[in-house]
Amino acid sequence: MTLRKAGFAAATALVLSLTATACGGDSGAGDDKINIGIKFDQPGLGLKTQDGEYTGFDVDVATYVAKELGYDEKDIVWKQAPSAERENMIANGDVKFIVATYTINDERKQRVDFAGPYFLAHQDLLVRADDDTVRTEDDLNSSEMKLCSVTGSTSAQNVNKKFAPKANLINYGGYSECLTGLENKAVDALTTDDSILAGYAAQEEHQGKFKLAGLNLSDEPYGIGLKKGDTELRKQINDALKKMVDEGAWEEAAKKHFGPADYEYEPAPEITETN
Amino acid sequence: MSNLSVLYDAPGPRAKARNIVYSVVFVVLLALVLWWVLATMADKNQLDRAKWEPFVADSRVWTTYLIPGLLNTLKAAALSIVIALPLGALFGVARLSDHQWVRGPAGAVVEFFRAIPVLLMMFFANAAYAQFTDLPSEVRPLYAVVTGLVLYNASVIAEIVRAGILSLPSGQTDAAKAIGMRKGQTMVYVLLPQAVTAMLPALVSQLVVIVKDTALGGALLNYPELLSQVRLITANYGANTIAAFTVIALLFVLLNYLLTSLASWVEGRIRRGKRSAGAVLHADTNTEMEFDEPHVEAPARKG
Amino acid sequence: MFDFLDSGQYDVLGAFWVTVQLTVYSAIGSLVWGTILAAMRVSPVPLMRAFGTAYVNVVRNTPLTVIILAASLGLFQTLGITLAGGGDFEVIGFRLAVLGLVAYHATFVCEALRSGINTVPVGQAEAARAMGLSFLQVLSLVVLPQAFRSVVAPLANVLIALTKNTTVAAAIGVAEAAALMKTMIEYESDAIFLVSAMFAFGFVVLTLPTGMLLGWVSKRVAVKR
């Protein structure tokens, strides 16, 4: 009997502690903290490192904007913003804004507002460094072409619907799976935004292995997503972005994160999302 | 036929020699496959030091990714079993009710949730929570995974409980009736306590199923459990996907092997400890395959 | 609300057809490989017994998601195994998913068969040996036929579990029912109840008759002792 009671007590304690930890995370930030959504698994843009630090171009932009809004670097609480969750996170108020390779488009503008753009990316291909078979967009549309992308991404849809419906496309849950296939010659190219590809190519472990094909397959203006209707915040963020470019901090960040990949990024774009 | 050596004669000198030949051929075949796999991997630079070294040389891989991931796996599994257990017991007992209006609906619910893939329930829960609740997006995957696992496993546990109660000798009920116990009392004081002990091994095995299913939440719902750490590790250590997968698969095998061993140990304890009429539900009848028939220990058939 | 059903945008029946195909091919494969594993586990060669035991213990304790991802990333992307030639990624993905499902469910077939072998009276094997039958003959002519008849119900459960587990193939992009459901939930978010109910119904239709039919078969073929 005592054993059963003890077991019951232990089980109850377990449930309580688990629910406590489950709820502990969402107590949220008070007035002196700011929640910002970024990618956690995108080298060069938003990456959680093995030390638990955050690094990347998006992170630098977000930090700068937060500073202009009056938040110190240590007051920032980084939240993981997976692609499919971004609109929800903003609508729920989980984050103040999101800087996570977030392409501005009309469909998304129905649910969230954007500030920026702060960067202009293009869909491109990452190929093995010694592979010169892809030179133009037309080379892609062939059944011999083995492409890899991420399930549900716009890049994958572009391949299917726009420029290479004939290509053999495989979709995985993440880019690293595609890199393995690329390295092992099971696929010919990984396709997504050049900024993301540059992040991978610039990684220490990959230097000299991969290169960007340099095709501008689409325009992807990255914006900072925020709650719909918050014009005040949008203005503040746009001002902060302008200042970042004028001060040269933008260029510095871009060079730091994209430079090692020989990636010729576009200069800072004009801010268009003002009303 | 518990001693399987009855299937063949005790090997004589010729049979022994033949067995050795078979063994050698078998080993050579296995070795060839292994050699080919390793050679191909080496050829494609998958055995590079840089890809595997982090897992032994860099403790941060463990502290930042693997251990938190493992804890998240365990958290989802523990929450699921703790919630599914009472729910399952309730439905299991309800299915044995004398009243058609209790038995019928309970049976329908159990059969329905056993018939649908757990992944579908997770997808649905995730979408429903996103649309109808204000759960922050960080904890929603956990809720979705646990909801899916609870719905499915409660229905499986309901069947385990039902089988456990049905496996008890009818003398138990008769005796309870004879001393004037009501139906509810018989269930609570006589049948359930015995059934629970009989079910224990099967329940622990069910944990293995739950732990394995949490991986679905990692692969398809962004729940930060063990398997999903592959993505973060490979983003930091240069696409060492194969290495990361191997390490994580081994961790899963180890964890589940421990749980399976625990189940057999519990089964052994109960079997030795109890001389009473109780039955033991097999720990190694794989519970994932559900209980259509009460898995009562088969009457021993000694040769 | 129902307009997406008519638009022809989503091929629900096609997706379920892929699920059915995955199930059928994997079921046949699991039965064959599971029987071989069971034979290994009761064979006179200690090494094969050890291999069978190790295989079952390792594979059964690995999540199916990991196995199927490993088939795609390890076998295909790394080792270059496409199973019967190259071709479209979709076709290769399907074959790899079947391979993963077979590797996993064969362990459950094997364990069911082993418990079936246990129900065959010892006298049967002894009589067969007395007639001079070899191990393989004892197994294939006398023991397994009886064992199979006693494990129809557990095997039916494996088959039902297999039907449901084909959804895991969504993890490597096979266009089966669960993958379509995920897409539809994303794009038709105002109709998640309808979409979910539709897919749930599809699986109920696939699994319930299987269970009932094989339950009836198991009673028909059971060896009366």
From TrEMBL, chain B:
It is found in: Cell membrane. GO terms for biological process: amino acid transport. The keyword Membrane applies. GO terms for cellular component: ATP-binding cassette (ABC) transporter complex. InterPro entries: AA_ABC_transptr_permease_3TM (IPR010065), ArtM/GltK/GlnP/TcyL/YhdX-like (IPR043429), MetI-like (IPR000515), MetI-like_sf (IPR035906). It holds the Pfam family BPD_transp_1. GO terms for molecular function: transmembrane transporter activity. Its main location: membrane. The chain crosses the membrane at residues 20-38, 76-96, 108-130, 142-165, 186-211, 242-266. Keywords: Cell membrane, Membrane, Transmembrane, Transmembrane helix, Transport. The keyword DNA-binding does not apply. PANTHER family: AMINO ACID ABC TRANSPORTER PERMEASE, MEMBRANE COMPONENT OF AMINO ACID ABC TRANSPORTER. Belongs to the binding-protein-dependent transport system permease family. This is ABC transporter permease subunit. It comes from Streptomyces taklimakanensis.
From TrEMBL, chain C:
The keyword Membrane applies. Belongs to the binding-protein-dependent transport system permease family. HisMQ subfamily. Residues 16-214 form the ABC transmembrane type-1 domain. The chain crosses the membrane at residues 20-43, 64-86, 92-110, 130-148, 191-217. It is a multi-pass membrane protein. GO terms for biological process: amino acid transport. PROSITE patterns: ABC_TM1. This is ABC transporter permease subunit. GO terms for molecular function: transmembrane transporter activity. Its main location: membrane. It comes from Streptomyces taklimakanensis. GO terms for cellular component: ATP-binding cassette (ABC) transporter complex. The keyword NAD does not apply. It holds the Pfam family BPD_transp_1. It is found in: Cell membrane. Keywords: Amino-acid transport, Cell membrane, Membrane, Transmembrane, Transmembrane helix, Transport.
